[in-house]
Design a protein that fits this description.
Keywords: ATP-binding, Kinase, Membrane, Nucleotide-binding, Phosphoprotein, Transferase, Transmembrane, Transmembrane helix, Two-component regulatory system
Strand order of the largest sheet: 4-3-7-6-5
Helix content: 40-55%
EC number: 2.7.13.3
CATH topology of one domain: Heat Shock Protein 90
Structural class: alpha+beta
Subcellular location: Membrane
CATH class of one domain: Alpha Beta
GO molecular function, one term: phosphorelay sensor kinase activity
InterPro entries: GAF-like_dom_sf, HATPase_C_sf, HATPase_dom, His_kinase_dom, HisK_dim/P_dom, HisK_dim/P_sf, Histidine_kinase_KdpD, KdpD_sf
CATH architecture of one domain: 2-Layer Sandwich
């Protein structure tokens, strides 16, 4: 894709100079965007085709000035005299120089000399002079017109160059501010794309040097000539190279060449190599900064991945060892003291083994789901579920672990949601397991189902030790464990993280609030989009 993007207005030509028009034209603000059925580049070509070449425009203006001066001079010769006619021509040459510059002044001076000699001196309609005394006035007239026109033209040229330099510097400053905010290489490309016609009135292509060679960052259509020019520029290590209307420059960073910038100049533009160097240095600095930013981002991502692995291993080693130890101890007791244990004790040990196996199974499911959610995996097996039935099944499954903690359901409200049954039950089990773990025997756990507007809200409240206000949001972060002064059970730090990932995946929300039941404990509020009763 070629970087030919104009932001705010098209550039137009005025007196041979590329400047911004007074009023903005419709803007093009994205790379490769099509406007109706034509590309940005085709639109610019059509606009330029509708405009006359600046040199032709200037020639027409100069011809018009000379024509008016000639008519005025002929009238002045008849009414006032030849001296007034000569002064009118000098004025015309000065005006032509002021409008068109030195070249226009020289051309106007030569044409005025011929016209004055042919029409205004005797004998008329002839280039011959009546006497040698007419040579001096003719030379003086020509010198006066030439000096006045050239001086006016030089002022015009200097003013034009000053305006052009000022415009380029303003646009260069704006680009510099934009590039300072670019944190990726593609951000740099987009910024240069939008500023290309502002600054140089030309197309700019950027090639980045990689291990595979030079690759275009802006992904333009394959152009062998452009790519070959980029390779020659990089091989020659030349600061600036100009070939066939294209100016190329190496983009040098602190550790060597970063790539090549190619400016494809228009038919009327002549870029200052010094200005191109300044633009290239700015782009190279932005590319290098973006490269460093991307490298830092990758390093941070790797560090986070390593941190996750470490936390995962720590969680596995701690949370798996406890149930495995309990299972091993219960099984060893049954094997060693089988004949000495009564029926109730044996049943208790077997029940402990089953509970710890379920605990291990839940840990394993949490780890698998956490890994899948971290990898960006979506939810599969979505189906229409009754929230009341799912809550009832989870309570029935977790009740053996509740001990003397009664789990109560409030209200008969029900709603249908679109979710994965296994994951939904896992979420409810995780929240209920936390409520049991962090509450004492005899305390209550209350589960409420409400229908709020177009959402089904499940609230699980306990009257346990609660969560400090500062940790209400962080409890949903993976491997986060609440710091408590008193001794308290420690979980894996995955249960609520799994719940948050599942709930957000189906378009819902989950939050922790305090207090829970009465003035103690915690309540976890799960809000899921409900399926309308009409099924739509």
């Amino acid at each position: 894709m070629t970087l030919v993007i104009r932001k705010g207005a098209l550039l137009t030509h005025h007196d041979g100079e590329t400047i911004l028009p007074g009023e903005a034209s419709p803007s093009w603000t994205s790379i490769g965007m099509s406007l109706s059925s034509m590309t940005v580049e085709e639109s610019l070509i059509k606009v330029r085709k509708r405009q006359l070449h600046p040199a032709i425009q200037q020639a027409l203006v100069t011809a018009l000035v000379l024509t008016l001066s000639a008519l005025a001079a002929l009238a002045a010769k008849i009414l006032i005299g030849p001296v007034a006619a000569a002064l009118i021509f000098v004025l015309g040459i000065t005006i032509a120089g002021a409008l068109g510059g030195v070249i226009a002044a020289l051309g106007a001076s030569f044409v005025a000399f011929l016209f004055y000699n042919f029409f205004l001196t005797d004998p008329a309609f002839s280039f011959r002079l009546a006497s040698s005394r007419d040579i001096a006035p003719l030379i003086i007239f020509n010198l006066c017109g030439l000096v006045a026109g050239v001086l006016a033209g030089r002022l015009k040229d200097h003013a034009k160059a000053a305006r052009r330099s000022n415009l380029q510097l303003e646009n260069l400053l704006e680009l510099s501010r934009t590039l300072q905010a670019a944190v990726r290489q593609q951000d740099v490309v987009m910024a240069v794309a939008k500023a290309a016609y502002h600054i140089v009135g030309a197309k700019i292509s950027i090639y980045r040097q990689t291990s595979d060679g030079l690759n275009p960052l802006d992904a333009p259509p394959h152009d062998p000539d452009r790519h070959a020019l980029a390779e020659r520029t990089l091989a020659a290590d030349s600061p600036t190279r100009e070939e066939d209307g294209r100016m190329s420059r190496c983009l040098k960073g602190s550790e060597g060449n970063l790539g090549v910038m190619i400016v494809e100049m228009s038919h009327s533009d002549k870029l200052d190599p010094t200005f191109v160097d300044a633009l290239g240095n700015m782009i190279a600095l932005a590319l290098e900064r973006a490269t460093f930013s991307e490298t830092i981002a990758e390093s941070r991502a790797s560090a986070r991945a390593e941190e996750l692995k470490t936390a995962l291993l720590s969680s596995v080693s701690h949370d798996f060892r406890t149930p495995l130890t309990a299972i091993s101890a219960s099984a060893s007791s049954l094997i060693t003291y089988r004949d000495q244990l009564d029926a109730s004790t044996s049943a208790g040990l077997l029940r402990s083994i089953v509970e710890e196996c379920e605990r291990l199974n839940r840990y394993t499911a949490n780890l698998l789901e956490m890994s899948r959610l971290e990898a960006g995996g979506g939810l599969a097996g979505l189906q229409t579920l009754s929230v009341a039935e799912m809550v009832g099944a989870a309570i029935k499954r977790i009740r053996p672990r509740a001990g003397n903690r009664p789990i109560q359901r409030c209200g008969e409200t029900d709603a249908l949601v679109n979710a994965n049954a296994a994951l939904f039950e896992l979420v409810l089990l995780n929240v209920l397991d936390n409520a049991i773990r962090y509450s004492t025997d005899g305390s209550s756990i209350i589960v409420t189902i409400d229908h709020v507007q177009d959402h089904c809200v499940v609230t699980i409240a306990d009257e346990g030790i609660g969560i400090p206000p500062g940790d209400l949001e962080r409890v949903f972060t993976r491997f986060h464990r609440v710091s408590r002064a008193e001794a308290a059970p420690r979980g894996s730090g995955l249960g609520l993280a799994i719940a948050k990932g599942f709930v957000e995946a189906v378009g819902g929300t989950i939050e922790a609030r305090v207090p829970g039941v009465g003035n103690a404990g915690t309540q976890i509020v799960i809000s899921l989009p409900a399926i309308p009763e009409d099924g739509q």
